[in-house]
Each structure stands twice: as structure tokens, then as C-alpha cells.
UniProtKB/TrEMBL annotation:
Residues 104-143 are annotated as: Disordered. This is RNA chaperone ProQ. Pfam families: ProQ (PF04352), ProQ_C (PF17516). RNA chaperone with significant RNA binding, RNA strand exchange and RNA duplexing activities. HAMAP family: ProQ.
Length: 206
């Protein structure tokens, strides 16, 4: 019974050839030059195989023999092989020369394509580099910002009363708050931070 799963994708057909003729079609690494007229042998060998058509085989074979790794393998001293990997003749110089010219043209075409795309990417980069020029502006901003200097005097117990706004000496910077209770020399202050502390009157500034 014939298979109805016909292969149409060139890569799938190449994979099928790698599997079916592993001594002829090499999937990875250096390849070997193929026998002249190999397509006819291939068509006859796969005549009863409904998976591939002659047209698709021809396309796949052209893809394989135009690849860079195949063209690199067409060199002096290399032997052509048949479907079973048997050697069947040394390469002629004209075929070696043709392969080298084809490889060089293909590589130059690929290089030109990469270079043509490069200016598009390069044109976008200067716009991004322009941003750092704003950095010097930041240096000018801190200077004008100067908080008004408020001179605070130590508070006297008789001047204090509940709910009065005061400043409490805590470290280098006085902390604002509100008097909530006065008990002799001790004053209870609720700071703006939410913390309530008991301090001596000499630590309170007005």
C-alpha cells in the first residue's frame, strides 16, 4: 500500500534523503561531491516511493549542492560518490573552479545583504546617544534650592501650652511637633512623624 504522506517542504525532503541515503547525503559537517547523473539514480531508486516527486527531488538536490558546505567540499583530491557512498571518480578541475566561483559569489552576496541592512540599524543609534547631553543641566539645579534659615530659640516652661507648635532637638535637625501635655520640667510632644515623646523643656525650641 502506497503512502499518501507526500513531502512538499524542501527541508523535509532533505531530511528524508539524509535518513534514506546517509552514506551519500551528509546532514552535518563536510560533504562529499556527488556522482554526475546522481539525480537519475535517485529518481529510479525512489520511483516506487510516493513520498517525493521528481520535481521536489530536483529542488532538494539543487539546495544541497548549492550550500556553502557542499561547495567547500568540491576541492582538489576529493572523490565523487554514488547513493551508497561508493567512490566513482575524481573531480575535474573545471568543476572545482566553478564551485569556488559559485561559493565566492554566494558569500559576497550574503555580505552585501548584511551591509545593506547595517545602515538602517546604525541610523537609529545616534538618536539614543543624544540623550546624555542633558546631564550638565542637572548640575545647575541643586544650587538655587536653599531653604530659608529659621532661627529657633530655646523655649521657656512658662511660654509652653498644650496644642502649641514646637520643635524638638533630636540630633542635628529639629523635628516639628505639637505639645500634648506639660508636667513640670517634662513636656509630652507628638511629633509630625506620629511618634509621641517626653522631653525636657531645654530640648524644645520655638
Amino acid at each position: 500500500m502506497e503512502s499518501t504522506d507526500k513531502l512538499t517542504d524542501t527541508n523535509a525532503i532533505l531530511a528524508y534523503l539524509y535518513e534514506t541515503f546517509p552514506l551519500c547525503f551528509i546532514a552535518e559537517g563536510e560533504t562529499k561531491p556527488l556522482k554526475i547523473g546522481l539525480f537519475q539514480d535517485l529518481a529510479e531508486r525512489l520511483a516506487d516511493d510516493s513520498k517525493v516527486s521528481k520535481t521536489q527531488l530536483r529542488v532538494a538536490l539543487r539546495r544541497y549542492t548549492s550550500s556553502w558546505r557542499y561547495l567547500k567540499g568540491v576541492k582538489a583530491g576529493a572523490q565523487r560518490i554514488d547513493l551508497d557512498g561508493n567512490e566513482c571518480g575524481e573531480l575535474e578541475q573545471e568543476h572545482i573552479d566553478h564551485a569556488q566561483v559559485t561559493l565566492k559569489e554566494s558569500q559576497e552576496k550574503a555580505k552585501a545583504k548584511r551591509q545593506a541592512q547595517a545602515p538602517k540599524n546604525a541610523a537609529k543609534k545616534p538618536a539614543k546617544k543624544a540623550a546624555p547631553k542633558r546631564a550638565p543641566v542637572k548640575k545647575e539645579r541643586p544650587a538655587p534650592v536653599a531653604a530659608p534659615v529659621v532661627k529657633l530659640e530655646p523655649a521657656k516652661l512658662e511660654e509652653l501650652k498644650q496644642k502649641q507648635r514646637v520643635n524638638v532637638k533630636l540630633g542635628a535637625t529639629p523635628v516639628p511637633g505639637v505639645v500634648t501635655d506639660i508636667n513640670k520640667e517634662d513636656v509630652l510632644v507628638q511629633l509630625d512623624t506620629g511618634l509621641t515623646i517626653k522631653v525636657r523643656v531645654e530640648h524644645i525650641l520655638l
